[in-house]
Automatic annotation (TrEMBL):
Protein name in UniProt: DUF899 domain-containing protein
Organism listed in the record: Roseibium porphyridii
Superkingdom assignment: Bacteria
A Pfam short name: DUF899
SUPFAM superfamilies: Thioredoxin-like
Amino acid sequence: MSSPQIVSRDEWLEARKALLAKEKAFTKERDQLSAARRDLPLVLVNEDYVFDTRDGPKSLSDLFGPQRQLVVYHFMFGENWEEGCPSCSFWADNYERLDVHLAARDTALVSISSAPLEKLEAYRTRMGWTFDWVSSLGTSFNNDYGVTFPGKEDPAGRGYNYKGQPVGTEELPGVSTFIKLEDGRVAHSYSTYGRGLDILNMAYNLLDLTHLGRDEESLPYPQAWVKRRDTY
């Protein structure tokens, strides 16, 4: 990073006002993008997924509870892993305890992973999280929504993040949203992956407001600094 420019308060204020105009334009563009997202068509979910939960087997429809909408965080925790992904754990720290606020807007939140439920529960207890977390083990859910690639293969040929390219890992993160129609059927409305998840991470959004920002340019890869909350 180059040496910071030091200016007078008046000069700083002029520069800040110029940036504010760009920020306001970006906010309007983001509102338009959000509207376009809401206008996406829906796809009916016809598969009979059954998830392993603390309260016994549940269908995708059951995961909504009394809410009309469902947000799923695809948490990277492979079937044979002993711990959850550090980066997904970072994200989970940011959406922990949001469920009550989402419920006020008729929306449920759940994390779904490939690992057996007992591993998820043990890790959830270790991290002190309270959000619902269920296992998709034995179902095709994670494969169908583009986040799990057994043997690093992609039989569907869609690739990660709609790129249609082979992937180099078995587990990747994502978010998918669903809505329950008036007749009780469930429809898939949206999924996002990769950098599309940035907006969900308050820690990153706060760092983006600072002078140094995320300060990851010199690292071997972004998030190389991230550790599980109990290992810093």
